[in-house]
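for the writeup, i need someone to sanity check this before i put it in the appendix. the sequnce is what the collaborator sent (i think, or maybe the updated version? ugh). structure was predicted straight from it, no edits. if anything looks off just tell me and ill rerun, i have time this weekend
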Amino acid sequence: MYKISFLAIAVFFITQLAKGQNFTNSDLNGSVAISAAPTGWQQVPNTDPASTASGSLQATSDICNTTGPSASAGILGTPYSGGTFVAGLHAEFSGSSSYHEGLMQTVSGLSVGTPYVIDFYQTVIKQSNALDPTGSWRVYVDNTLLATSTPSTSLLAYNATGQSWDNVSVAFTPTATSHTFKFLPYDDDANHLLGSSTSGGLRMGIDLITLGSTLPVELTTFTAKCEGGSAIVNWSTASERDCDYFVIEKSTNAENWSFVAKIQGNGTSSTAHNYAYQDNNLENEITYYRLKQIDLNGNKSTSDIVSIESCEINNQLMLYPNPASNQINLNVKANKDQQITIHILDLNGKTVAVQQGVSLFEGNNVVDMNIEDLDQAMYFLRIEVDGKVEVQKFTKVNP
């Protein structure tokens, strides 16, 4: 049987972007240029303890978009958000000079001892003589290394656009009301030499850097559980204010996140609302989920993380929900491609509904069956898969 592992939460705390406590120009918008920083940001100087740049010219990041600042050298790319992003090198030139191009900003008005989350997006950009396909960003608070992100990988050519961006979240608790946050690219192998090979110098991109404080809001539950070979994600709100929509994201390592679904919110409401989403696209491994709330002004908040273990189906038929009113969902495990017929029988064994020509593919399948026309009663569902008859009982209730 499959195993279930989820977090039960009585009251959630979610990461909410607080006005006056976010980065200035978090979207890194600016004029495309070599050796430039977006408005509100500074380049990390070569004299900074976190920098390994050998001189001031080797510590200058670049503002990029899909056309430049240098298409011929490959210093370009597709922003994650907004019109531009920042790219920086971590590399050496013939052993005589070292490049380390990052950016930094000082944020004031922080609440000492209150947990925050630094959230950003990263990708590997490359350039004509910096072809390393894998790299990270290091995050410093003042002169202390806070985290090194999980490496991103790109198989695109050095002069390509259309990069895939990975989301990174880093927890942080301030010890003062003002801190300087530094972001520097990090080559995770020993070869940093420009032009040496595909594992040489590294050029990384970064975009949409936000800082959120952890404040209590009216999200009362957020859970995930296995049901019939799928993950069912549920959450409830006691009230909502200017809530535009929710985004469900998932991950296999709790660091790099991918989009799952967008669910419309209820604007401003003082009544409780319950939400649910069924994720049928699962890997046979532990899966982490988190919830993002986006308000009407574009500000976002992020829930804690919940997880499930493998939802692999070991028996051939699972039926849910049960009881059901309008539709039942069948998870059917098949050993080969085939077509089946689904029979619904009453308690006397009489067939009351049939669905023929249902195509199954090898592996796990999800089949929906409409039961609106059935009377309120108990029924048996019967199928034959791989030569084996499977029967499950369910109850039809009126909506």
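DSSP finds no helices and 28 strands in the chain. The radius of gyration is 26 Å.
thx in advance!!
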